[in-house]
From TrEMBL:
GO terms for biological process: positive regulation of BMP signaling pathway. SUPFAM superfamilies: Growth factor receptor domain (SSF57184). It comes from Leptosomus discolor. Residues 29-181 form the Elapor1-like galactose binding domain. GO terms for cellular component: membrane. This is UPF0577 protein KIAA1324-like. InterPro entries: Elapor1-like_3rd, Elapor1/2, Growth_fac_rcpt_cys_sf.
């Protein structure tokens, strides 16, 4: 069975219940829009790909510290010449999709997004796995259909260092996955948003001159300066 948007599965009683005020759920979807830390289920794998002759052992060791880094509203890729994969595995009860927003402005870094099944076979839907560059300051979006069953999602970056030039990292935010049967918890509204009704499928932005903390049912008026 599956729960509708605005609901979550109460594991103890195995029933769909409405999310409380101040929280929301996508029902058959999960959304990652807070990056204060790496969300549960995500992992980083870093390797060093080198075709040059010579010792690469030290370089491979250096890559152990290379990773995607959470930055609050988004997650930021590595800036070095290591190959780093941000990985998330999800099991879908029905066919679905993955959507994310990104900034990718520097062609001195390779950025690819692809999907494998649990036999490590790459899915056909990611034949075009190279993500397009975006204009400076603009957020692009990328979406791919997902088959039912196990899907392992990879956001992979490799920097090409040219002298002392610093590579501008790739930024990713608002990762949304549709096709899960249910979510076992509701997500708190982000600061600056609220939900004032039980069973919300999203949070509303606070009106002008008001603010809210995380998980708010309503927004608070800003104090007027004397």
């Amino acid at each position: 069975f599956s729960c509708a948007s605005g609901e979550y599965l109460e594991m103890k009683n195995q029933v769909c219940s409405k999310c409380a005020e101040g929280t929301y759920s996508l029902g058959s979807g999960i959304k990652f829009d807070e990056w204060d830390e790496l969300p549960a289920g995500f992992s980083n794998v870093a390797t060093f790909m080198d075709t040059a002759v010579g010792s690469t052992e030290n370089k491979a060791d250096n890559c152990n510290n290379s990773s995607w880094t959470p930055r609050g509203n988004y997650i930021e890729s590595n800036r070095d010449d290591c190959t780093v994969s941000l990985i998330y595995a999800v099991h879908l009860k029905k066919s679905g999709s993955v959507f994310f927003e990104y900034q990718y402005i520097d062609n001195n870094i390779f950025f690819e997004f692809f999907i494998q099944n649990d036999q490590c076979k790459e899915m056909e839907s990611t034949a075009d796995k190279w993500v397009k560059l975006t204009d400076n300051g603009e957020w692009g979006s990328h979406s791919v259909t997902l088959k039912s069953g196990s899907n392992i999602l990879y956001w992979r970056t490799t920097g090409i260092l040219m002298g002392s030039k610093v590579v501008k990292p790739v930024l990713v935010k608002n990762i949304t996955i549709e096709g899960v049967a249910y979510t076992s918890e509701c997500f708190a509204c982000k600061p600056g948003t609220f939900s004032d009704k039980p069973g919300s499928s999203g949070c509303q932005v606070c009106p002008r001159n008001t603010y809210s903390e995380k998980g708010a049912k309503e927004c608070t008026k800003c104090k007027e300066e004397m």
